[in-house]
């Protein structure tokens, strides 16, 4: 066997994860990032105040409402939306940079953002909707996270039904019962999507070379 591994160049994909608040998409995303160096996270901008332990520039870019509107006007967002009582948006620049470096990009965004991304870049998008095992468990997780006030938890629970109604718009649905199984499921989705023929843009050259050149 040759000692040089064949590489077929590949077009980067955009993996979007959505769910009702508290179903577990951030937890699954973090685990995925730790295990897979070929995917980078899109860090959103938000007008929401930081939760305890959240780091500016890592979890979010925490910005004022004025700054957010300025970014919208300057078309700096790939998508943006009002979610609950705050604004959230995906800065365009870092996403382009990750894709240019040949890696995939992971997004933790809501259904409104996913719809906007689907309008602009359907071919590059892979979308996963995470459902909780039950509404009771969803509330347990939101409260167990212990990072939001009672009022915030109540508002998020009140919106959960509406958010879950968007599941048919997604490519894959993961019911997040067991965390390890959910992480493995998303890894499997990513592995299969990377092998899609149309994403392996280096295949024509590779097969030509396999056939001895033409
Ligand atoms: N399979 C699971 N079993 C039990 N607890 C879980 C599971 N998955 C996630 N959790 C816990 O549920 C809580 C909410 O998870 P997480 O913050 O990932 O939700 P989220 O969907 O990203 O919410 P948000 O949209 O508000 O950011 C966390 O405390 C997390 O540790
Ligand atoms: N459309 C977008 N939605 C986003 C973005 N960043 C996060 N989100 C979604 O907001 C809610 C609440 O998040 P939280 O961190 O306050 O709990 C959740 O559904 C996220 O997926 C974004 O850039 N665009």
Automatic annotation (TrEMBL):
Top EC class for this record: transferase
Xref: PROSITE patterns: GUANYLATE_KINASE_1, GUANYLATE_KINASE_2
SMART domains per the UniProt record, alphabetical: GuKc
Tree of life domain: Bacteria
GO molecular function: ATP binding; GMP kinase activity
Residues where ATP binds: 19-26
Keywords, alphabetical: ATP-binding, Cytoplasm, Kinase, Nucleotide-binding, Transferase
Residue span, Guanylate kinase-like domain: 12-191
Pfam families reported in the protein's UniProt record: Guanylate_kin
Catalytic activity, as annotated: GMP + ATP = GDP + ADP
InterPro entries, alphabetized: GK/Ca_channel_bsu, Guanylate_kin-like_dom, Guanylate_kinase, Guanylate_kinase_CS, P-loop_NTPase
One GO term describing the cellular component: cytosol
Localisation: Cytoplasm
EC numbers, comma separated: 2.7.4.8
Role noted for this protein: Essential for recycling GMP and indirectly, cGMP.
NCBIfam families: guanyl_kin (TIGR03263)
Similarity section: Belongs to the guanylate kinase family.
Protein's recorded name: Guanylate kinase
The species this protein was found in: Paramagnetospirillum caucaseum
